[in-house]
User: What shape does this take?
Amino acid sequence: MNEPALAPGVVLPMRIESGDLVLRRWEPQDLQARFEAVRASYEPLHQWMDWTAEPPTIEQQAEFGEMQERGWPSDGSFNFGIFDAQTGAVLGMAGVHDHLGPGAVEIGYWCHVDHTGRGVITRAAALLTAASLDLAGIGWIEIHCDEANVRSAAVARRLGYRLDRIELDGIEAPAEVGRGMVWIMERAAFAGSPAERIAGGRAG
Assistant: This one.
């Protein structure tokens, strides 16, 4: 694993709110709702996520929840549940992962199958882009996806990320073609970008 980009004590907020959307750290009481969201979304997730090689179990989700409770970040990742502010429903999940080395973090995401097409992930990724670029030591954000994952690539494109490169990275999930797209948002490019507009804020 690469050297972390973030110094000890430099962390993302545990809760980010924007209109009807709430991103927050997973809590113990989220176990059943998170499990049901992953189970409902298993088929589309299975196509792209190596961690969904098998159908989810409640035991696996309990282990994941226990890991989240051990620290913030947990194993180098800030993992957020995405919730409807009014109903509390789980809309998806997004994470900021500090494993790229100095200067950068990666954003990952998935949407509950029942809530796609509403801009949930685009908005969540915009909020995490803004929050991450506000952190000391971060000069750019990356989004990685397989070349065949057109939905994930569309999120990066809508936010104004630029396609930096396509590299061979192997096939780890059934729908992948093994060509990884690396999208980048630099701090200097954030001002005036669609991501800034959607997030409603500017990175410092």
User: Anything to note?
Assistant: The longest strand covers residues 77-84. The chain is about 30% helix and 25% strand.
